[in-house]
């Protein structure tokens, strides 16, 4: 039984008679990226749909093991979402001015194989080192965050938030304490921020590192 994406990808590559190098060339990425998926290191990628196209397999089956292998339901909203890569300034107008932003400003869109974000979800590329901590508490510059557009959160969530004194949003961990709510950085060189009269604009559902 094929329980993981890595196992299913290995199976369809064998069935198609294609190796890592050939698939990487067809998709336009480095062989290491395919290798990481086959080893289970990468469980999602911006190249997920191109890989499905090259192998003529169903994204829903490859990601979740559900349905027919070769039913190409690429437009299934239950699995695939097309979301914009926004800046922390653009987030302030999302999704209220969604139509205007989509038509005039957004240049990069991601097709994400995830059921964790809705149609108003978006992506953010991490800038700076404020969330670079130790061990698993480390989200480095360049990482792409997949964000659910919502104001509802739980203490400990990673969020995109707007402070009343700032002209752009920020990426932090939100923590409710007995006396107040705070925005925290994983990097201890950054100060704790008391979150007063601010707004949560989204909750991070996934972090994607790109390997080319």
The number of distinct structural domains comes to 2
Helix content: 10-25%
**Overall shape:** elongated
**CATH H level, superfamily name of the largest domain:** Umud Fragment, subunit A
Q: Which CATH class of the largest domain?
A: Mainly Beta
Largest sheet: 9 strands, mixed
Output the structural class: alpha+beta
How many helices does DSSP assign? 6
- Percent strand equals 15-25%
Tell me the distance between the termini: 30 Å
> How many individual β-strands?
9
CATH architecture of the largest domain: Ribbon
Describe the structure.
This protein has helices spanning 5-16, 20-27, 31-38, 48-55, 59-64, 98-104, and strands spanning 80-86, 109-113, 122-125, 144-148, 158-162, 169-176, 181-184, 193-194, 199-208. It is elongated, with a radius of gyration of 19 Å. The relative contact order is 0.14. Helix 2 crosses helix 3 (31-38). The chain folds into 2 domains: 5-64, 434 Repressor (Amino-terminal Domain), CATH 1.10.260.40; 81-208, Umud Fragment, subunit A, CATH 2.10.109. It has a 9-stranded mixed beta sheet with strand order 2-1-3-4-9-5-6-7-8. The model is unreliable at 72-78 (pLDDT under 50). Helices cover 23% and strands 24% of the residues. The two termini are 30 Å apart. It is of the alpha+beta class.
In short:
The chain has helices at 5-16, 20-27, 31-38, 48-55, 59-64, 98-104, and strands at 80-86, 109-113, 122-125, 144-148, 158-162, 169-176, 181-184, 193-194, 199-208.
């Amino acid at each position: 039984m094929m329980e993981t994406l890595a196992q299913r990808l290995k199976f369809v590559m064998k069935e198609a008679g294609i190796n890592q190098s050939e698939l990487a060339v067809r998709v336009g990425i480095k062989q290491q990226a395919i290798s990481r998926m086959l080893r289970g290191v990468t469980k999602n990628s911006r190249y997920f749909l191109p890989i499905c196209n090259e192998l003529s397999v169903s994204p829903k089956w490859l990601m979740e093991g559900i349905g027919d292998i070769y039913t190409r339901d690429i437009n299934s909203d239950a699995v695939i979402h097309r979301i914009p890569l926004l800046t922390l300034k653009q987030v302030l107008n999302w999704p209220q001015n969604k139509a205007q932003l989509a038509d005039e400003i957004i240049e990069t869109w991601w097709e994400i194989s995830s059921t964790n974000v809705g149609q108003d979800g978006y992506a953010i590329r991490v800038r700076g080192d404020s969330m670079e901590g130790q061990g698993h508490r480390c989200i480095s510059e360049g990482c792409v965050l997949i964000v659910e557009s919502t104001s509802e959160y739980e203490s400990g969530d990673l969020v995109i938030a707007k402070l009343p004194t700032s002209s752009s949003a920020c990426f932090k961990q939100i923590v409710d304490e007995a006396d107040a709510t705070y925005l925290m950085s994983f990097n201890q060189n950054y100060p704790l921020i008391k979150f007063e009269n601010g707004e949560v604009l989204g909750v991070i559902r996934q972090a994607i590192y790109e390997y080319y």
